[in-house]
Design a protein that fits this description.
- By secondary structure, this protein is α/β, with parallel strands linked by helices.
- The chain contains six helices and nine strands; from the N terminus they run H-E-H-E-H-E-H-E-E-E-E-H-E-H-E.
- It has helices at about 1-10, 25-35, 55-65, 80-90, 140-145, 170-180; strands at about 15-20, 40-45, 70-75, 100-105, 115, 130-135, 135-140, 150-155, 185-190.
- It has a seven-stranded parallel beta sheet. The protein has a two-stranded parallel ribbon with strand order 5-7.
- The longest helix has 12 residues, at about 55-65.
- The chain starts with a helix and ends with a strand.
């Protein structure tokens, strides 16, 4: 038993996927055991149950953003919109190892509430960012064109049901600036 415990605790790759459902103590333990590898963090909203995952997510981003390699956050119900909005407004964060971001906002009903927006220049402190997927999350296009080093960008507005304005679309000049700043971009997907 001691040998297995030692083997498992000395294998960082077994601890890099951190679902923020177990509480702060376990989150810290996953981070400790996953060193020196970057962590892959997943959180969903609303945060239901005995453990307040939103506080753990806020803690993770404030205290350990430099350890995150990928971040997936999604909201699946109207009840989680407030928590998800708080989460989005933590950006920009200093995350030097952050390579992949997936922010997905979808609803279970067609009569969904308002569309959430990222703050201005959300990824300015994430120089390693290579893949960005935004599902029904509006972006500030003048600052998006300043992203550099992207290999994949997906922005998906399907299911928004007419709550977007024309200003949510990038202009041709903004797309050209985005493309010229990201010569390694292999995939650009804009869905409506």
């Amino acid at each position: 038993c001691h040998r297995w415990r030692h083997l498992i605790s000395s294998s960082p790759s077994l601890w890099v996927y951190i679902p923020l459902v177990f509480g702060r103590r376990w989150t810290d333990e996953f981070l400790r055991l996953s060193r020196p590898l970057p962590a892959h963090v997943y959180i969903s909203f609303p945060t239901i149950g005995y453990i307040d995952r939103n506080h753990i997510a806020l803690y993770m981003l404030r205290e350990h953003a430099d350890k995150i390699g990928s971040l997936t956050a999604c909201v699946a119900q109207n009840e989680g919109m407030g928590e998800f909005n708080q989460f989005l407004h933590l950006f920009p964060i200093a995350a030097p190892h952050l390579r992949h971001v997936n922010l997905d906002c979808y609803w279970l009903h067609e009569q969904a509430g308002t569309i959430l927006s990222l703050p201005v220049n959300p990824f300015c402190n994430a120089p390693a960012l290579r893949s960005l997927r935004l599902g029904m999350v509006n972006v500030h296009w003048p600052t998006m064109q300043h992203l550099q080093g992207l290999e994949s960008l997906t922005i998906d507005w399907r299911g928004v049901y007419g709550r977007r304005s024309q200003t949510d679309h990038p202009s041709v000049l903004q797309l050209v600036a985005l493309l010229s700043n990201n010569p390694g971009l292999k995939e650009l997907t804009l869905r409506e």
